[in-house]
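_Full entry_
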Amino acid sequence: MNMPAAANTTNNGRFLLGLVTGSVVGAALALAFAPRLVSELRERVTAAAGDLSDAATKNYRDVSTRIVGAVDEATARGQAVRDVVADAVAQGARSVEQLAVAAKSGRT
């Protein structure tokens, strides 16, 4: 089934015309929407960066609060241990003093 040369030339011409027309329409649409798309993309990126910054700030505050709480708790525990040790040393010193007084007076 060979097509006549004239029909083949007509089909090629239509294809070429469709290709050129599609290219022109596509280019026109790209130029028409490009500034808006770039603007929208810029807004989205700016919004996403702002959201990321807000999330990072919130996480930083949360972690800082937890760290401060842990340090305060560790400090309180350390002070409690220091107080217990100081009381034990004071009690030991009183016991030694009582023994020394008893030894001086001859009552052991």
The radius of gyration is 44 Å. The CA atoms of residues 86 and 107 lie 28 Å apart. The first helix runs from residue 5 to 105.
